[in-house]
Amino acid sequence: MSCLAVDENEFLQLLIAFDEMSSSSSDEEEQKERPRKRPFKHRKSKGVVMFRDDDGELKVLPPTMSLWYNMYCQTGCQERMSDFHSKFRRRFRLPYDQYRELVEMCTADSMKEDGTSLFKRWRPGKKAALTGKPAAPLELLVLTTLRYLGRGWTFDDLEECTAISEEVIRVFFHQFIKFGSTTLYNKYVGPPLTVEDAIDLCIREYEAAGFPGCVGSMDASHVEHQRISFKHRQAHLSFKLPFTSRTYNIVTSHRRKIFSTTDGHPARWNDKKLVRYDDMASTLHDGTNPLCNLIFEL
């Protein structure tokens, strides 16, 4: 009797499965034959800035026709104004030649094929996979980062000047910060490795000022940081500033060459505590720095 009960159960399960398969196939056929009530939506070309051409047709303004591109990115733009370099230095906190060098470094990074590129999506000549439009120019994106850091503009302000969406500018900004903390930091920040380098870079200026044997000037620098959680607010309020900030201990030469810097720490920490995290100051104190062999006369 038990064998017959098992056979009946299996037969019922097969009937249920067959019924479900037939109903699902019929539903699929009905969906195929059923006409679509709403037509498919076609995406319209969206843009940040619009303009009218000679025929009066409203079109999307490409970034290569924006205000900043015509003023700063075109070849020979620095020859149009007599005070171009002084205005560029004041507006972007960087000389124009160094800006072009920075653009070349970002372009070289975008050409990497080893998977370590931070700017691959903005490679010159590359087009977006969905829209087929060319990527935003790196020249403009670097300008947006310099203005954001130098004058505290918002991404919405930069969108108006470059015809690049604020989301693209935001994504590029975070990639540029990562690029600056790795590639640019390793290239431009570093102490003298030998006594001869120290003499060429900094010793002569300090000897003229009456400080023979000095290799750098050290102090803490505060950088405003508003987005601090409430439980950490008191630790980031110093007695010097009315706002929350992070503090960095920096060693520089008289020629404004940065030798060493610490990570960000709470602004409430004083210089005596902060200097313990400075590698250059610690190695000079321990006697393990090559500059400890520097001989000078008082």
TrEMBL record:
Comp. bias regions, Basic residues: 34-44
Domain of life: Eukaryota
Stretch list, region Disordered: 23-44
Protein name: DDE Tnp4 domain-containing protein
Origin species: Nitzschia inconspicua
Lineage: Eukaryota, Sar, Stramenopiles, Ochrophyta, Bacillariophyta
